[in-house]
Each structure stands twice: as structure tokens, then as C-alpha cells.
Amino acid sequence: MPCVTYDAAPLLADLMPWSVAPLRPGRAWPTAPDPGSLKARWDALLRAEGPDREALFEPSRTRTLTSAVGQLPGQSTGTERLARAEGPCAEPVRVLAAPFDEQWLIPDHRLIDTARPELWRVADAYQVFTVETADAADPLLVTSLLPTLRTGRVRPLYRRPGGEEPNLAPGLTAHLADRLGGAPTSPADILAWILAATGPDLTVPLTDDPGLWTAGVELGHRMLWLMRRDGERPKLPGGRRPYVRAPLPARPLTLHFDRDGETLDLDEGRISPVPPQAWDYEVAGVRVLETWFTARTTAPEPGTLAAIRPPAWTPAWTSELLELITVLTLLAELRPRRAELKVTSTVTATDLREAGILPAPEACRRPASVLDHHEEGPEGQFALI
């Protein structure tokens, strides 16, 4: 846990005022660790008719086969009611389905109970989503993918597509730049500081010490890179890189960690070296590697759409597992540096109020009007937002 000073520190909710409640998928089958299974599930749904289609769909109070909803922003899907839907599956998109678990989702509004269209409107290559975790050690996650995990509120870095209009209290960037005498204070730099310095109570101690700020921003950018996994892939030093030492079985059922030997056993398959800090990495009290493995190996209820899945463990999952071990190891190594980030010379919430930065205008807490084109509504109707 970071050893920082939180007295009079502003809240994250004040510095990044626009937030959205997490998505609520409502049913598990439109999400999967591989895209091929999703297309097969969609085809199976459309082959079924009447009560069989309804049972496979798994209706809820929010979504049934007769629900009338429009397209998700930026996605091309049908808008007719699912009871008479035809056509191919929408191309699955990559999402963050659980902490550090990237999966695939059918981006069809008819399948998702609460899809949060305002997030889809600003999801692009420039966007970074900050997700509250309720975890004392790591209170925030960041991702370039649309987050569908069940956690706290989601705070996009930008309020508009294309990296336009940072989701920061108006005047904050200029005020920090002035107090820091020209140290880097771009929106991405401020987010990096937030990631490195935010406390368990979601307060963000700010500093006007240029050296401390630069060190915190550098640490936060490293965390951002590891969590987003954009660009060059992270690697451990040569002698510490995990490899498959014994072939993984076609359908592993058990996961066991040998702490002394630093090996991860998937039945008779074996990966090593696996540092203990990777195995021990938890978010909100849940071990990341175990939940990742469970999502790919737990047998679903027979006869459901979720039961349609790959017949065997895929090479892609092996590659993802090796990278996940690497990411968790490198993030764990940053925790001591976070503990050393002691903020003593602070820019307090009172300072920001006196400068007219806080409280942020109420409009900053609502979604921006981002569209200059039509979105298709239910049954092919169009709406201008």
C-alpha cells in the first residue's frame, strides 16, 4: 500500500468528474475467451425457434427476445427483435472481462442488460478507462479496452473520441503546470500520477515538488504500459522468462503452484519459472491467475450457449498466460516504489477550491454530446444524439 499523505487530498471523483457505473451484461454467454465460440453461439441461438430460442437466450427483466433497442455506438448489428433476428454474428470485440483478463464480447445491444452506450461512444484508440477496484493495494486498474468487469465506477480519460476534452476538472492541468514550474502535466501524465498515488479511499495527494512529481509520473506511466499492454510486449530478463516446460494437456482441469520450484502446473503440463509474486497477485482478495484459469476451464451447464466452447486448450491461451505471468510479476515489482512515494509538499483540495478549480461544473459530471451523425435505433429507426 502506498505510504502517502492523504490529509486534505482531493478525491478522484473531483479530479476526474465524469464517471459511469459498470456495464451489466446480464448473461454470460455473449462473452468468451475466444471469438470463434461467440460466433458459434450466435448461430446456435438463431437456429433455435420459439421456446427453445428463448431458453437459450436466458431472458431477464431488462432483455427478452422482444426487447426493442438500438445499435451500440460504433457497431453494426441488427436492430430487429431477437425473436425474428437473422444474419451473421456481429464481429466480436476485445473487452476487459475481469482484472487482467482480456476476453471477447458480441457487441450487440440486444444481448446486454445495461451496456452504457456513453462509454461505447468514446471508446477508441486514444481512450484509457480507469476502473475502481475496491482493492487497498491497487485501488485502480486502467485499460484501453471497454471494461465489462463487475467493479466500481469507470472514469474515461477523455470525454470525446479522438483524445478530445480530457475528463479532468477544468483548469487542473494549467494549475499543476504553474505549481510545478513546467514539469510534464499532459492529461496522460496526470493520469499516470493518479494511478501511482491514489489511496485506498480514492483520494489523490498532489504535489508541487517537480522532482517528486516526475518520479511519480514515470512510475505511473510504467504501470499504465503494463496494464494496457499496448505496443511492445513486456518481457522479463532472459533467465526469468516463463516458458512451457512440459506440454499443456488438451483440457487441463487443475492449477497448482509449486512455490519452491517456481512452477505452475496445469495437470501434467508445466510452466516455469513463475515468480511467487505473480501467483500471489490479487485484486479485491481474488488471485488473478486462478480466476483467469477458471474462466477457461470450468465446464458450463450442458445445453446452454456457454457450453459451446473450444474442444481443447488453445495456443492463444498459452501465449496469453505467459504474458499475464510477466505482467503480474513486473507490476508486483513496482509496489515497493509506490510505497516510497511519500507526498509531503501538497496541492490540497482547499488550494484547488481557492483557485476556482473545485468543485468542477456540474456539466463535467455528465456525458459530453459527442455525435454529429445518426445512430440506428430499434427496428431501423434513427436518432440524432
Can you offer a commentary on this structure?
- The chain has 385 residues and is of the alpha+beta class.
- It has a domain of 88 residues.
- Helices cover 30% and strands 16% of the residues.
- The chain is built from 11 helices and 19 strands.
- β15 and β16 form a beta hairpin.
- The N terminus is likely disordered.
Characterize this entry briefly.
The chain has helices at 12-15, 35-47, 50-57, 117-121, 172-180, 187-197, 210-228, 276-279, 288-297, 315-339, 349-354, and strands at residues 31-32, 93-98, 101-105, 129-132, 140-143, 146-147, 154-156, 158-160, 164-166, 206-207, 243-246, 255-258, 263-266, 269-272, 282-283, 286-287, 346-347, 374-376, 382-384. The protein has 385 residues and is of the alpha+beta class.
Number of helices: 11
N-to-C order of helices and strands: HEHHEEHEEEEEEHHEHEEEEHEEHHEHEE
* Spatial strand sequence of the major β-sheet: 1-3-2-6
Shape: flat
The count of strands amounts to 19
Secondary structure class reads: alpha+beta
> pLDDT average, as an integer?
93
Q: What Rg is obtained from the alpha carbons, in whole angstroms?
A: 23 Å
Q: What proportion of the residues is helical, as a percent range?
A: 25-40%
Poorly predicted regions: 1-6
